[in-house]
Each structure stands twice: as structure tokens, then as C-alpha cells.
Amino acid sequence: MANCLKKPNNKKNATKPEDEEDKFYCSVCGREIDEDEYESYDGMCWECWDDQLTEESEDMFGDVM
Question: Would you say residue 9 lies in a domain?
């Protein structure tokens, strides 16, 4: 998994508005996600989080929950 989840602020970009929100990225696929999704799904987008949960369920129980 990628450990670079939150894009650092780039102070060199003078055209970037000061009030622009920080961007968050899925730790699995790298897709840009909003802060709520980032916090709700452990730094992953919903699709990657759901895939991981399904894989863990199959490993633990031998079947999808």
C-alpha cells in the first residue's frame, strides 16, 4: 500500500487559492477522495475498502459475509 495519502501543500504554486481544501487520495488506487471518505474508510475510497473487507471475510470465513 502506498503511504503517501495526503498531498502536501505546494507553496510554489502562486495561483492556488488559499482557501482551497487539502486533497486526499485513496491509499490503494490513488483516486482523489473527499475528507469524509478518507476518514470513514481508513484512507481508502469506498470501492477499495469494500474490496478489502470482502477479501478479509473470504479469508476468515471461507465465504463472503
Answer: no
Q: Which amino acid is at 19?
A: D
Of the candidates 27, 33, 31, the residue with the CA atom closest to the CA atom of residue 5: 27
What was the pLDDT predicted at 44?
Answer: 97
Per the structure, the complete domain to which residue 49 belongs is given by: 24-61
Give me the sign of the Cα torsion angle 9, 15, 17, 18.
positive
Q: Report the percentage of the chain scoring pLDDT > 70.
A: 63
Task: Say how many domains are in the chain.
Answer: 1
Q: Which of 13-17, 28-32, 35-39, 53-57 has the lowest mean pLDDT?
A: 13-17
Q: What is the pLDDT of residue 10?
A: 46
Query: Cα 16 to chain center, whole Å?
Result: 23
Q: Which residues contact 46 (CB under 8 A, 6 or more apart)?
A: 37
